[in-house]
Amino acid sequence: MEDDYILDLAQRAKRAAGILASSSGKQRTEALQTMARNLRSQAEQIIEANRQDLAAARKAGLSEAMLDRLGLDEGRIEKMAESIEQIALGVDPVGQIIDGWTLPDGVVIHKRRVPLGVVAIIYESRPNVTSDAAALCLKSANAVILRGGKEAIASNGAIARIIRQALKEVGLPEDTVGFVERSEHELVNDLLKQEGLIDVVIPRGGKSLIRAVVENSHIPVIKHYEGICHVYVDAGAELEMAHRIVMNAKVQRPGVCNAAETLLVHAEVAEEFLPSACDELAGAGVELRGCERTRKLYRSVVGVASEDDWSSEYLAMILSIKIVSNLDEAIEHINRYGSGHTDAIVTQNIEAAEDFVARVDSASVMVNASTRLSDGGVYGLGAEVGISTDKLHARGPMGAADLTTYKYVVYGRGHLRQ
Amino acid sequence: MEDDYILDLAQRAKRAAGILASSSGKQRTEALQTMARNLRSQAEQIIEANRQDLAAARKAGLSEAMLDRLGLDEGRIEKMAESIEQIALGVDPVGQIIDGWTLPDGVVIHKRRVPLGVVAIIYESRPNVTSDAAALCLKSANAVILRGGKEAIASNGAIARIIRQALKEVGLPEDTVGFVERSEHELVNDLLKQEGLIDVVIPRGGKSLIRAVVENSHIPVIKHYEGICHVYVDAGAELEMAHRIVMNAKVQRPGVCNAAETLLVHAEVAEEFLPSACDELAGAGVELRGCERTRKLYRSVVGVASEDDWSSEYLAMILSIKIVSNLDEAIEHINRYGSGHTDAIVTQNIEAAEDFVARVDSASVMVNASTRLSDGGVYGLGAEVGISTDKLHARGPMGAADLTTYKYVVYGRGHLRQ
Q: Are A57 and A148 within one domain?
């Protein structure tokens, strides 16, 4: 863009970050509690803004699913407020001494957790990301710049205004939470160029959004790509348990990244396991697409899986199924076609479990548990920034602590380099 | 490039990384010891290759300083071997359980350190980087692709061949250490595009090399930028100690990133401290460039500092000096002009020390110690990949453990998501 709109926003965020870095945890907790209170008391303003977004979205012909994601009511705003209160209750990561030691000559070294500085979050339609992201960044004493989807701009703007007001009330800078109020597409590229001011960019949304951010960013990006998650039923599996895990991983909530997309079954147990499992899955409404061996076993219920199926994140009631000859083939399949998100083995064989854990290259590896457990809330990390499919900085579920870095603090008594 | 040279190298590294991920620490230690032994016993081959590089470099008219960095002799090769042995002796980061807990329903979660996968290191003239980087990556069970400077290509190639031979001797894949044997410039861009195969790129060298890598990489980069390091002499400083620290930080080894470039002095002690400090520095051969206030105090020895001086990494016997009115001004100056590498305060005042530590946004913050102590070896991290000026993933001195990521390992007994 030709104007300095984003530059100005980034500079103000950077200044706010400087002040936040020496704020107390008490002050930040108070700000979070005030945010939650004000969201509740000013819910009507948010709902009013949301009506504008919904009207525009209907006019633009958005799908019912999109409209549902976009819509806000008292109940959803209450959930946003509760989520902020949960974050307020969590452990404060800032200032934690995560390591420390004393050198032989008496120099004392602390490794101290400190905020990253300024975080930019680029997201799509759901307005609750506005409050969640703002709260997680404030918890970790970061300033944040929020760029939401165009279709939610009025709702997001109303939420951001209420949050900024709450910050002001407790004496913290409003610019702790910056919001891109204009919707031009080029502003995203402006944002991605502020490498001296913004420390990290986190895109949350579809693959094409993430790809565009990675390609254009001069700032480090933490990516939250798709989840092509597997359940592998080993020869040593307790088949009753395998049934329950496969059903839960596929059916409990198929539209999310930690739901299973592919079932791998050891040839030795395929004949015993697959027919009843397929019946149960099909009975629950799951479309099954199998490899040749699977189809030989149970052609009536199982359609054909093509090569593309192995690398598809359906996010829907579809499951691909493959029979493998051994553990090695299962691991190779997962490392080749998976997305490194979450993969599970079902087995009572301790060596198979440990081999699987050691060799599957994924953020979360589950033994005898559903892939659906891969979640910051379930793991006890508190509210989640997202699930990182990157290996650098943060991998898997990202909590507030993952929005920090550290500094080495070195205490000498006139120590010199020899 | 039109051929698949780099793609092939990256694919081979990825395969090697898969094997390394399940290698034992014992095997990797053995490989490191064999490397060190073979470098010693085949030193003559390296020296012979180095002669070719030196001859070409002289013909190309490289400076004496460059020739000195490039040159290898028995002594330098012995140092390379010793460095590998040090790395072999260090703690094995792979497989460390860095955190772990049990959920209320009995699910057990481990956070386990695992290798990143494939690391690419792009560096300039010094051939010892070849052996250091290979050893650090092997220690952390990563495969590595090395791309050294054109002027050292024969020496680096000889070192890489000896290392690959050592890997083979102990039964690990030779492709653990890949070496770009061709020197075309475009190969670097090919390397930076292998985002499915290479997990991280670490450029080591001058600012322009790093900038070019950041701008062209589709792969996450860990940057090792310059060090514009400060020593701040506070009103509460013990001036005798301040003298020693300033001298050590500037003079002990001025050509490295953790040497001081700017001295900040509190106005209250400037008159007492600066004249003798300037005399001592000037006596040691340091060129001094001061702000107006400094020059008023001691014009005979101190030249003029321009605005550019505050953001210059001299890497030479030059020091800029500024008198500041208070601690705040010192901190603001450092956060504005510094590079976030290493900054020191000299003070006996505990509150000034803690304010400085909290508010200076640098990888290492020293209290009553020389900036020269900011070093992986000094901190006890073992050999150093470099000193990261990034905030993501690794900040400050990077050891072998910083070449790892983690995975969540989740043990259930048929646990499902409710």
A: yes
- Mark whether B171 and B302 lie in a shared domain: no
Our count of domains for chain B comes to: 2
Nearest residue in A to B107, CA atom: A369
Half-sphere exposure of A262 (CA within 13 A, CB side): 31
A133 shares its domain with A257: no
Chain A, 227-266: which have a CB under 8 Å from a chain B CB?
238, 241, 244-245, 248, 252-253
Residue A407 at interface with chain B, using a CB cutoff of 8 Å: yes
pLDDT digits (tens, 9 = 90+) for B191-222: 999 988 999 999 988 888 888 898 888 899 99
The 8-class DSSP code of residue A213 comes to H
Residues A157 and A300 in one domain: no
Spell out which residues of chain B touch residue A380, defining contact as CB-CB under 8 Å: 101, 103, 109
Structural domain of residue B197, as residue ranges?
A: 5-225
Check: CB of residue B198 under 8 Å from CB of residue B120.
yes
Does B411 touch chain A if contact means CB atoms closer than 8 Å?
yes
ipTM score here? 0.92
Is the CB of A253 less than 8 angstroms away from the CB of B417? yes
pTM: 0.91
Structural contact between residues A272 and A279, judged by C-beta atoms closer than 8 angstroms = no
Q: Which long-range contacts does B280-287 make (Cβ < 8 Å, 24+ apart)?
A: B280/B243, B280/B247, B281/B246, B281/B247, B281/B250, B281/B251, B281/B319, B284/B247, B284/B251, B284/B317, B285/B251, B285/B317, B286/B250, B286/B251, B286/B317, B286/B318, B286/B319, B287/B317, B287/B318, B287/B319
A115-149 pLDDT tens trace: 999 999 999 878 988 999 999 999 999 999 999 99
Q: CA-CA distance, A226 to A387, in Å (whole number)?
A: 9
- CA separation, residue B310 to residues A378, B320, B387 (Å): 49, 7, 21
Note whether A191 and A316 are same-domain residues: no
Q: In A21-152, which ranges are continuous DSSP H helix?
A: 25-41, 43-59, 64-70, 74-89, 128-139
- Which residues of chain B neighbour A413 with C-beta distances below 8 Å? 241, 368
Asked if A217 and A302 sit in the same domain, the reply is: no
Q: Which residues of B touch A99 (CB under 8 A)?
A: none
- Please tell me whether residues A64 and A199 are part of one structural domain: yes
The answer to whether B101 contacts chain A (CB < 8 Å) is yes
Tokens of residue B324, six digits: 């500041």
Does one domain contain both A266 and A180?
no
